[in-house]
Amino acid sequence: MAAEDEYLLMSGLQHFAFCRRQWALIYLEQQWSENLRTAEGRLEHARCHDTAQTERRGSLLITRGMRVVSHRLRMTGACDVVEFRADPAGIPLQNAEGRWQPTPVEYKHGHEKETDADRLQLCAQAMALEEMLVCEIPEGALFYEETRRRERVAFTPELRQTTLALADEMNRYFARGYTPKVKPGKHCSACSLKALCLPVLCQRADPNAYLRAHLDEPLGGA
């Protein structure tokens, strides 16, 4: 079993599901370019991850920035918020009477997505919590800052299987140091790495055409 400090970051699942090349540029090549949306999202997450904020509201315990690890996924991360609700069928917690049911809540900038990228990251957090706390977590929630609404996410067998498959693929890419080629699409316009990735130029680049165009050039110029 690999050491936990060798595990991939769980937050990378959202990037990987959005665009495998984006994930590789950030996590393999250490490239990053911040725009307004990423800066706002980073500040919002900083508030969520204030681990000094642990509170109780009646039958609800709220923890922030809880560190999690999954040996099955070979990933580590931090949950924005984990809510523990009093539940006779839940689990015992240290320094808290009764039994509690955990629910991960991930905060996201913007609004609900058409893809499952955010849901996959949340599912990975739930799977890690299940490993750590030896429990079952049927659902979680995504809170979007733009709409100020929660989206309930059911952790179905299909979502869990997709999460596991993507985690395995990420680990294979990381072990190989593999950065996928550009696959331009409408998602590129929303990517903060567009200026670094240059999807249009990479799409047009054809090494065979370049060689054919330069093979007949006279040496030393005209």
Explained architecture:
The protein is built from 8 helices and 7 strands. With 222 residues, it is an alpha/beta fold. Helix 1 packs across helix 2 and helix 4 crosses helix 5. Strands 1, 2, 3, 4, 5, 6 and 7 form a 7-stranded mixed sheet that branches. The longest helix has 20 residues. The termini are far apart. The protein is 37% helix and 27% strand.
List keywords for this structure.
alpha/beta; 8 helices; 37% helix; seven-stranded mixed sheet; 222 residues
Q: What is the secondary structure topology, with strand pairs?
A:
Blueprint: E1 8-9, H1 12-18, H2 20-27, H3 36-48, E2 55-57, E3 60-70, E4 75-93, E5 96-108, H4 117-133, E6 139-144, E7 149-154, H5 157-176, H6 194-197, H7 199-204, H8 207-214
Parallel strand pairs: 1-4, 5-6
Antiparallel strand pairs: 2-3, 3-4, 4-5, 6-7
Helix pairs in contact: 1-2, 1-4, 4-5
